[in-house]
Amino acid sequence: MEQKHGYAAAFKAVFRYTIPVLAGYVFLGITYGILMRTSGYPAWLPVVTALIIYTGSMEFLLVGILASAFNPAAAFATAIMVGARHLFYGISLLGTYRDMGPKKFYLIYTTSDETFSIVYTTPIPDGIDKDKAYLAISFLDQMYWVAGALIGTLFGGLITFDTTGLDFVMTAMFVVILLSQWVEDGTALKTMLKDHISELVGIFGSLLCLIVFGPDHFIIPAMIVIFVALTLLRPVLDPEFQQNQHKQKTPQVKEDNA
């Protein structure tokens, strides 16, 4: 099949996968822009922070951090705690982003929760350059967030309806991604456990940590539990990995031609 190397082909191929992010990021970005403007910050600040920081939850916390007493150590610690989950995203994408050259740095920088979900679960269509496709996904998602912040900054004062609950858009988007992956892996009841090990590990691991650590502190422990469980279950989830391990353990018999 002919390989389509252009960025235009990559953007066209992956755009439909980013539509849920478009819906969520624009609404949340608008909310962020409105919040910054109504808190008395200049119009340029929401857009610049959306472009440079590009961490939605941290940006919402930034509103209060900027208004409080100067404490860089506390701000740094908060940023580390909020963004610690990205460590697991990076580990999961080591193979995906390998050998991408300078593009890798931008891809790492723009790996948000939603971008990770799309990159990790979306099959790149045949004939599309994967490097350009991943770059297109990351760029589109970032621009959605920046555009939302810009709209909120410019037109926030004109919005009169109650925006309570708009942040639930992101939760709904993750549910849709989970259901899509579930259907793709199979819907037969007889093979549910076999087909959905990774999803079930994520669901029950998160519920367990939610019960043990509470709603304010369960995310990082849940990530650790899921990471350890999936690592232990890798031979079951990835048959090729098990075969490679078996080959490494099997002694090689060298022919003696002497």
From TrEMBL:
Domain of life of the organism encoding this protein: Bacteria
- Pfam families, alphabetized: AzlC (PF03591)
Instruction: Indicate the secretion signal residues.
Output: none
InterPro entries the UniProt entry points to: Brnchd-chn_aa_trnsp_permease
Location in or out of the cell: Cell membrane
Q: Which UniProt keywords apply?
A: Cell membrane, Membrane, Transmembrane, Transmembrane helix, Transport
Major subcellular location class = membrane
GO annotation terms (biological process): L-valine transmembrane transport
The name this protein goes by in its record: Branched-chain amino acid transporter AzlC
Show the taxonomic lineage. Answer: Bacteria, Bacillati, Bacillota, Clostridia, Eubacteriales
